[in-house]
Amino acid sequence: MTKTVFEPSIKSRPVYGVLTPRPGPAHLIVADGEGAEAVAALFAQAPDLAAKSYLIYIPGANGCDLSVQAQALGADRFHRAPTYAAVRSRIVKVLGDAHMGLQVYVTGTESLMGQVMRDAAEAGLPHEAVQTEHRGSLARRVQCVHCKGVTENVTTDPFVCSHCGLSLFVRDHYSRRLAAFQGVNIDAEDPGEVPPAVERFK
Amino acid sequence: MSIGAAKIAVIVTEVEEINSLIKRFRFVREDGGLMPAFSGGAHTVVEMQDGDTRRLNAYSLMSDPADLSGYEISVRREDGGRGGSLYMHRMVKPGMKMLISPPVNLFAPDRRAKKHVLIAGGIGITPFMAQMAQMDALGVRFELHYAARNADLCAYGAALADRYGARVHRYYDDAGQAIDLKTLLATQPLGTHLYVCGPKGMIAWVLATAEAMGWPRGTVHSEEFLSPPVGQPFAVELAASGKTITVGATQSLLEAMEAAQVDAPYLCRGGACGQCETRVIRCDGHIDHADHWLTEDQKAAQTHIMPCVSRFTGTTLVIDR
Questions:
Q1: Structure confidence by residue, pLDDT tens digits, B91-147
Q2: pLDDT at residue B3, as a whole number
Q3: Domain-located, residue B110
Q4: Distance of residue A38 Cα from the nearest chain B Cα, in angstroms
Q5: For the packed helices B126-138 and B157-164, what is the interaxial angle rounded to 10 degrees?
Q6: CA-nearest residue of chain B to A121?
Q7: What's the pLDDT at B2?
Q8: Half-sphere exposure of B88 (CA within 13 A, CB side)
Q9: Are B215 and A100 in contact (CB < 8 Å)?
Q10: Nearest-angstrom CA–CA distance, B302 and B287
C-alpha cells in the first residue's frame, strides 16, 4: 500500500480522497504508476464495476509499471498509454461524447490527477465531481511563474526551471486551471544565493 | 432586519389574474428610478401590512432581468396558508404603495454549465422565466420541462412555448402526461446542470432520481421556499437581548422576535438561505427543525436553530440573539 499522508498546508493545496464506487451507467478510470493498486481496491468494493469501466493506465515516471496487473483487473475497455500527453486527446474525446451520469476516477500522481480534473472541468464536470486518490510518487508538476513553462516530475526544492533556467522555490500554491504548483525565483534579490536543493517530493 | 440595502418603496402598477389560482403583480419604484439589477433565480421579500400583522413573504422575480423599469412576481393563492398569499390576492390593487426587499439570488444558474435543464412544477415556473430570458439573450443552451395540472393551470406555458419554441416541453397531469425523467437524465451531455422548482414531492423525486443516476451533487440545484409551520405556542429566552418572548401558534420565531423589536437577521424567511442561523445556548426539550439549511448532525445536536421556520417543544430554550 502506498497511501499518502499529506501535511496540513494552505487552502490552495489540493487534497485527495479514497476512490469509492458511485452509481452511474459508465465509469472512466485513469491511473498511473502505483494507482493501479487503488483501482484494484475500487473494483474489490463493487464486483460489477469493472464491466462498466473504461480503464486507462500510464506507467509511472518513477519506473513503476503495473500495466499487466491493471489489464488483468477485467475492465470492459483497457488502454495503456506511455504518457498523459499521449492519451489526453483520447480522454477529451471520451468526456466530450459522454452523458451525465459518467463517473470519473483518477488515481496515482498529483500531476495525473490535476490534469484529468482540469480536462474534466473543461468538459463541464465540476472539479469536485472527479474522485481522486493519491498513490505513489509525490513528484510535482510546476509552472514557472516567470516564463510560464511547466516542468514535470519535480522532486527537489529549489529546482532549475527546464525552460528559462531560473532557480525556483516550489510553493504549495496550486492552480486548478493549469494543473500545476507555482514555482517562484528563489534568488531574485540576491542573485546566485541559492540554497542547496533538497529532495522534498520523492 | 435583513442584511444589505434598505427596503425599496414601490407602487403596484399591474395586477393580472393569470388563472383561477395565480395572479401576477408588477412593482415600479415610487421615486421613478430603476430597480436594482438582478439575475435569473432571484427573489424579493414583499412586506404586507395586514391589519396588526406584518407579513413578509419571499417571491421569485419572474420578469426579464434586462428590464429594470420594474419587477414582476406571481402569487399562487394558498387558501389553507398563513394568509400572505390571500392578502396579495384580495387586498393588493394597482396604485397601492408597498415595501419590497432588494433582490437576493439563492437559485442562480451555474454559468460553467454547457447546458441547463429546467424542471418546473406549477408556480415553480417563476424563477425559470427570468432565467430563460437571460439564457436566451446570452445564447446559452437550455430546455424547460414544465408540469402542471392542466393547460389552464400551466401559467404562462403558451407564451413561453411561443417565445422559446421546441425548448419548452409541457406536461398536463389531467391528460396523464408526465416527465420521462429517467430518459431525460440519461441523455444529457456531460456538463449539463439540472434545476428543479416546484412542489416538495417533485423536488424530492428529481433529486433522488438524479443522485441514483450518478449526477454529481454540484450539478443539481433546487429551490423550495417553506412556509413556517403552525404549532403550539412556546417561550424563548433571547440571551443577547435580555428578553423572553412567546411565539404564537401561527407565528414564526423570527416574526415573534421582530414583534419584540429584536433585530434578527434574515433573507429568505423560508429555511433555505442560512442567514438567520442562531446558536442555541440551552435546550431542555426538542427543536422541531423545518429548514433545508442545517445538516442532519447539526439538527440532532440541537446546537443551532433557524428561527424563520423551526419551532420548539419543551421547557426551556435559550438562544444567542
A1: 999 999 999 999 999 999 999 999 999 999 999 999 999 999 999 999 999 999 999
A2: 53
A3: no
A4: 21
A5: 10
A6: B191
A7: 52
A8: 31
A9: yes
A10: 7
Q: Measured between alpha carbons, how far is A178 from A193 in angstroms, rounded to an integer?
A: 29
CATH of the domain at B288: 3.10.20.30
Q: What is the pLDDT of residues A64-106, one digit of tens each?
A: 999 999 999 999 999 999 999 999 999 999 999 999 999 999 9
Place of cell 424530492: B204
Q: What is the pLDDT of residue B228?
A: 83
Please tell me the distance from the alpha carbon of residue A117 to that of residue A105, in angstroms, as a whole number.
9
- By residue count, chain B amounts to 321
What pLDDT score does B211 carry? Answer: 97
Q: Which residue, among B111, B143, B184, B190, would best test binding to A if mutated, counting the most A CBs under 10 Å from its CB?
A: B190
Tell me, what's the ipTM?
Answer: 0.89
Residue A68 touches chain B, beta carbons under 8 Å: no
User: Does B59 reside within a domain?
Assistant: yes
**Cα distance from A93 to chain B (closest Cα, Å)?**
12
Please state the domain count of chain B: 3
- The domain in which residue B302 lies consists of 234-319
Q: Determine, for residues A99 and B187 on separate chains, whether the beta-carbon distance falls below 8 Å.
A: yes
Contact B189 A100 (CB under 8 A): yes
**Residue B129 counted as domain residue:** yes
Q: Which residues of A touch B187 (CB under 8 A)?
A: 99
Contact B190 A98 (CB under 8 A): yes
Q: What is the pTM of this model?
A: 0.89
- How many contacts does A have with B, using Cβ atoms within 8 A? 62
**What CATH number does the domain containing B68 carry?**
2.40.30.10
Q: Does A17 touch chain B (CB under 8 A)?
A: no
Give bridge partners of residue B9 from the DSSP assignment.
B99
- Do B94 and B126 share a structural domain? no
Domain with residue B120: its CATH number is 3.40.50.80
Torsion of the alpha carbons at B136, B138, B143 and B148, rounded to the nearest 10: -50
Q: In this complex, is the C-beta atom of A177 within 8 Å of any C-beta atom belonging to chain B?
A: no
Same domain, B75 and B125: no
B221: closest CA among B84, B118, B77? B118
pLDDT at B267: 87
pLDDT at A47 > cutoff 70: yes
Domains of chain A: 27-134 (3.40.50.80), 140-199 (no CATH)
| Residues of chain B positioned with their CB less than 8 A from the CB of A103 | 214
Say what percent of chain B tops pLDDT 70. 98
Q: Nearest CB to A124: which of B113, B194, B212?
A: B113
B36 found inside a domain: yes
The yes-or-no verdict on residue A2 having pLDDT over 70 is no
